[in-house]
Amino acid sequence: QVHLDESGGGLVQAGGSLRLSCAVSGRAISSSAMGWFRQVSGKEREFVAAISRSGGSGSYADSVKGRFTISRDYAKNTVYLHMNSLKPEDTAVYYCAATSSTMVAVKSEYDYWGQGTQVTVSS
Fold it and tell me: Which residues contact 110 (CB under 8 A, 6 or more apart)?
């Protein structure tokens, strides 16, 4: 019943920006901590960013800190990932996920996942 629908991925040059969206149905985002993960072919899915139920300042992987920002729009029941100063190493499939856990950087704690959206950054 819970469905996460990512959008906003695409091809962008290094230094550019993208905004990813995660529209959630079947569950209020205020009931979950929300996270973004990414995966490159041949590697494990890795933590990118997360936001708590209260909003807070967010949590970020060191590799994206200062460049990416996670946010919520409660009225739209949507979570966003604003990505600035993109680098070729940011190229990956990005996944939105929801968890009731406080261990928001741990992949195995997430119960619901979107289908992913491809982000490709050219040099």
Answer: 35, 37, 97, 98, 99, 101
33-39/18-25 β-pairing: unpaired
Tell me the mean pLDDT in the region 69-80: 94
39, β-bridge pairs = 93
The 10s digit of each residue's pLDDT in 80-108 is 999 999 999 999 999 999 999 989 999 99
Which residues have C-beta within 8 Å of that of residue 81, sequence separation ≥ 6? Answer: 19, 20, 22, 36, 48, 49, 68, 69, 70, 94
Please give the Cα distance from 42 to 27 (Å, whole number).
32
How high is the pLDDT of residue 61? 97
Write the secondary structure of the chain as one string of H (helix), E (strand) and C (coil): CCEEEEECCEEEECCCCEEEEEEEECCCHHHCEEEEEEECCCCCCEEEEEECCCCCCCEECCCCCCCEEEEEECCCCEEEEEECCCCHHHCEEEEEEEECCCCCCCHHHCCEECCCEEEEEEC
Backbone angles phi, psi at 90, to 5 degrees: -80, -10
